[in-house]
Specification:
The complex is a heterodimer of chains A (377) and B (255). Chain A is 50% helix and 19% strand. Chain A is α+β, with helices and mostly antiparallel strands and 377 residues long. In chain A, strands 1, 3, 4, 5, 6, 7, 8, 9, 11 and 12 form a 10-stranded mixed sheet that branches. In chain A, helix 2 crosses helix 7, helix 8 packs parallel to helix 11 and helix 10 runs antiparallel to helix 11. The longest helix of chain B is centred in the last third of the chain and has 17 residues. The relative contact order of chain B is 0.18. Classes of the chains: A alpha+beta (377), B alpha/beta (255). At the A-B interface, helix 1 and helix 9 of A face helix 1, helix 2 and helix 3 of B.
């Protein structure tokens, strides 16, 4: 006879309500874990998108994410010609604000060369960019749909494709346009400003600069040697993909990551206390029944089983409800919520440990109960 | 019916709580023997030691001094562990409480069969025994009802069924009729007596209920932790009530 299940069935509504409350708490914990992961994933997503091995940037900068970087677009040809480089592409980054359907859009514009590294990785709807101008591929979180037309700078662009999980570390959805369009966005002045420049006598010049050159190396090529070679050119710097990723985490998102990490720690501690309190209170409410069980000769394992099983069922239900809710609502978050199976399992382990510890407190109280309490004496 | 073996043998048992100025002597050298088939009552004012004596016989409280033997086993010597005492309670002692103390999350039949489940009976046999007992106590039709929906009398009969389920030879009852009217109280006591005879068990009851005094073989009066003087001790001989000289020496044969 399973006393734990019988007791749960007896007070099912209350138990379900408690589980639901705990489930909501677990939803918040899982959301924070997801937001924490999302912050890191978003920050790294932009770096990982080009699938590059080498980032060639402006000398003595940690560009293009941690610091601004500006190098001539023509550098791409020089990098491409280096022995061991398989592919190279120029790339630009720029944040832009526009509006669409009456709402403001803040977008992270990535300019890339068609057919070269730096473009969108996987199109989830529509197609990739095929025209040289005025087409864009955008992250789904922007709210734009294939076929929409959006104004960037002085031109209208058609949305031809959608991607997922392409955001910068600030959470702005990424927009991919051709390098030519991106450079025009960066350099073209408003007509009034252009007239004033002309009146002042300055001649418009076309000397395009990009943020970085991303390169993929040929199999077997020595990336360290390539990096060292690029650094010998006085006006250029080079970072490997791993250096770029660690730089981004340390310089750009570290503070936000620590902030969320600390909050997550506090939230886990609060959850542990709440779980412990619920389980302890559930046990204390049963002390008279536990005294009766002791009096009629129930062994300790029956009493411990009653408390521990209920604690684990409560924890497992809370975890399950929390997981279900976060999976239902995670896409409604404005920023990415990334839940890895590993995180979910670690939380399950933490909840199990907390439930066992909390039931330990309950068991301690139960073991101290005098069976004579059942006699009313 | 002739009385059987001595099931409860209490010799020079004393119990005190606290030490020094706070010391309270709850029991002072009490002797008591109860035989199979005997139904006795422990009487006395509040603080006289009757519940302490019941708890000691029930292996809930360890005496400060003296010797306690239950159905041939001398308990509370150094070889007995807490778990042994609990097993002894499961096998040999049945408890009936003032407020039935049925587990609220189990049905009537589950409350009864739980004891058998703990004792290691197969589930089907445990349920059959529980149902038979409930039928015998005329609450079989309420077997699947939870205690909250049972009347006071029904709940008390289920509690009696639970106390008797594992065929214990010693049944301890603490104010078993306190929640019942006089007619039902006498019926419950008659039932207990019948079961005691059938199972060759003894029943030791703490009670203040004068309406059921005539249902006992002996009335043991405790005062200030001692067995009281002869004036307070009565014994039932046929239908007559008599004052007898000493509780300890009484041996009654029921006709």
């Amino acid at each position: 006879m399973n006393l734990a299940l019988k007791d749960i069935r007896h007070g099912l509504f209350r138990f379900v309500l408690t589980c639901f409350g705990l489930g909501l708490l677990m939803t918040v914990v899982l959301a924070m874990i997801g937001i924490y992961n999302g912050l890191v994933a978003d920050a790294l997503a932009i770096v990982k998108l080009p699938k590059a091995d080498l980032w060639v940037v402006e000398a003595r900068t940690k560009g293009p994410f941690a610091e601004a970087s500006k190098i001539p677009a023509a550098t791409r040809d020089a990098v491409r010609r280096m022995p061991g480089v398989a592919e190279a592409g120029a790339i630009t980054f720029q944040t832009i604000e526009t509006s669409h359907s009456g709402r403001n859009l803040r977008l992270y514009v990535i300019g890339f060369e068609l057919g070269r590294p730096g473009g969108p990785a996987r199109i989830v709807a529509g197609r990739g960019i095929s025209a040289s101008h005025f087409e864009l591929v955008v992250d789904r979180k922007s709210g734009l749909q294939v076929g929409d037309v959006v104004r960037l700078g002085r031109n209208n662009f058609s949305v031809v494709g959608l991607v997922e999980d392409a955001m910068n570390s600030g959470g702005d959805p990424a927009v991919f346009v051709t390098l030519a369009d991106a450079l025009e966005l960066q350099t073209t002045l408003d007509p009034a400003a252009a007239r004033i420049q002309t009146a002042r006598g300055s001649q418009p010049s076309y000397n395009p600069t990009v943020a970085a050159i991303v390169a993929r190396v040929a199999p077997g090529a020595d990336i360290d040697l390539l990096t060292a070679t690029v650094r010998q050119w006085k006006h250029l710097g080079a970072l490997t993909q791993a250096e770029q990723e660690s730089l981004l985490l340390i310089s750009v998102v570290d503070r936000a990551r620590r902030q969320i990490g600390l909050f997550l720690g506090i939230l886990l501690a609060v959850s542990a206390v709440v779980i412990a309190l619920i389980i302890y209170t559930m046990t204390m409410e049963k002390l008279k029944q536990i005294a009766t069980l002791k009096l009629i000769g129930a062994p300790d394992r029956t009493i411990i089983g009653l408390i521990v099983q209920q604690a684990l069922i409560l924890g497992a239900s809370g975890w399950g409800i929390g997981l279900m809710l976060i999976l239902l609502v995670k896409d409604a978050f404005p920023r990415r919520v990334v839940l890895e199976p590993f995180n979910v399992m670690v939380l399950a382990g933490i909840i199990t440990a907390v439930c066992l510890l909390a039931s330990g407190l309950g068991v301690r109280a139960a073991m101290k109960v005098d069976p004579a309490t059942a006699l009313g004496s | 019916m002739a009385l059987g073996d001595i099931l409860v043998d209490v010799q020079a048992v004393a119990k005190h709580f606290g030490e020094g100025e706070t010391r309270v002597d709850a029991l002072r050298s009490v002797d008591l023997q109860v035989r199979a088939g005997e139904v006795i009552a422990l009487l006395g004012p509040s603080g006289s030691g009757k519940t302490t004596l019941l708890n000691i016989i029930g292996c809930i409280l360890e005496p400060s001094a003296g010797r306690v033997s239950l159905d041939g086993d001398v308990v509370f010597d150094k070889t007995w562990l807490r778990t042994d005492l609990r097993r002894l309670r499961l096998d040999k002692i049945g408890f009936i409480f003032q407020s039935h103390n049925l587990l609220p999350f189990l049905t009537a039949i589950e409350n009864v069969s739980l004891v058998l489940d703990l004792a290691g009976w197969p589930q089907s046999e445990a349920l059959k025994r529980a149902k038979d007992l409930l039928d015998y106590l005329e609450v079989g039709h309420r077997a699947k009802v939870k205690p909250a929906l049972l009347s006071g009398g029904e709940a008390q009969r289920v509690a009696i069924a639970r106390a008797l389920a594992n065929r214990p030879r010693i049944i301890l009852a603490d104010e078993p009729t306190a929640a019942l009217d006089s007619v039902r109280a006498q019926l419950v006591m008659d039932l207990l007596r019948k079961l005691a005879v059938e199972q060759e068990a003894c029943i030791i009851t703490v009670t203040h209920d004068e309406k059921i005094f005539n249902r006992f073989d002996r009335l043991i009066n405790l005062r200030d932790g001692r067995l009281a003087d002869s004036q307070a001790i009565k014994v039932r001989m046929s239908n007559q009530w008599e004052i007898v000289p000493s509780c300890v020496s009484i041996r009654t044969e029921l006709k």
